[in-house]
Amino acid sequence: MAGGVDLIALFGPTGVGKTEVALALGARLRAAGEHPVAVSADALQVYRGIEILTGVPDATQRAALEHRLISFLPLDASFSAGQYAALAHAEIDALLARRARPIVVGGTGLYLRAALTELALRPPPAEGVRERWQRRLQQDGAPALHALLTRRAPWAARAIDPNDRQRVVRALELLDSGELEPPDGPSQLWTSHVRHPTLLVGLVMDRPQLYARIEARVHRMLDAGAREEVLRAHAAGASPTARAALGFQELLAGDVPAMVRHTRNYARRQLTWMRKLAGVHTIDLTERAAAEVAGEIARLRHAT
Fold first, then answer.
1. pLDDT in tens, 187-204
2. Residues with pLDDT less than 70, the chain
C-alpha cells in the first residue's frame, strides 16, 4: 500500500464535516485507481430507524462512497464496543484482503480505537443492571449519577464528564458487576499501537464556526423529520443503548435548545478525546473546502 499506510482514519467532533471529507477523499482515491470503502466508527449509526438523528450518510452519499457498519441493528437491540470491535476488525481485514482502502470514519472515540487496535474491552452487564441504571438516569439525571460514581469510585469519575450519560451509566454498571477497578498502568486507549499501519487524521474547526454548524445541523435534522423519527423509535421500544443517541431524550421532550446545548458539550468532549490520541495529524477545516482537505490527507498518506 502507498506510503506504508493500509488504512485512513478520520476523527472529529459532530458537525465538523467528517462525511464531506470522507466523500472527497474517496473520490480522490478512486481517481488514483483505488477502491475506497468507509467503515463507520459511530456507536449509534449502527441502528436502523434513527438515521436522521445519528447523521447516517444519505442514499446519495452512500452511492458516492460505500459505507459499512451503518443501519444494520434493530432499535430494540443492545450493542457494545466489544461487539463493534469484532465486526469492525472483520470488515477491515476483509477489505484489505481484497486490496480495498478502508476509511474509518467516526466521532465515537472508543469505537475508533476499537476499530484500529486490540482493546481488552469489558463484557456486557448482567441482565437487568443496565435497565436499572437507565431508569435512575431518567429519574435523577446524569450529574446526580456522576456524583454517586464520585463517591463510589472517584478515580473513575474523574475521567468522565458529569453530563456524559452513556459513560456514567456504563461505569456504574461495571462497578456493580465488579469489573471496574483502579487502573494499574497506562490506558491502552492512548497507546500508538494499531492492528494495521494507519494514517490517523483529526479534523477540527474554529469553535464559533463549529457551534454555528452544529445549530444548523440540528435544524436540518428537524426539517428532515428527526423528532418524528424519535417518536417512532420510542413507540417501537428502542433499547437503552439506542436511546443514548445524542438528541433522543431532548427531542422526545420537545426541547430543541437542550439538544443544541448538549451537542455542543459533546463536541467539546470529542475534541478533548482527540487531543489524547497518539500519532494524530490535526487538520483545521475552518474556511476550507472538503476537496482541499482531502488533498492534504492524500499528501500526508504518501509522506507517512
1. 455 556 889 999 999 999
2. 1-3, 120-127, 177-192, 304
What's the CA gap between 174 and 31, in Å, rounded? 47
**Percent share of the chain, pLDDT over 70:** 91
Query: How far, in whole angstroms, is CA 75 from its chain's centroid?
Result: 17
Asked if 165 and 173 touch (Cβ cutoff 8 Å), the reply is no
Angstrom distance (rounded) from CA 4 to CA 31 = 20
- Could you tell me the pTM of the whole model? 0.80
Partners of 47 in beta bridges: 73
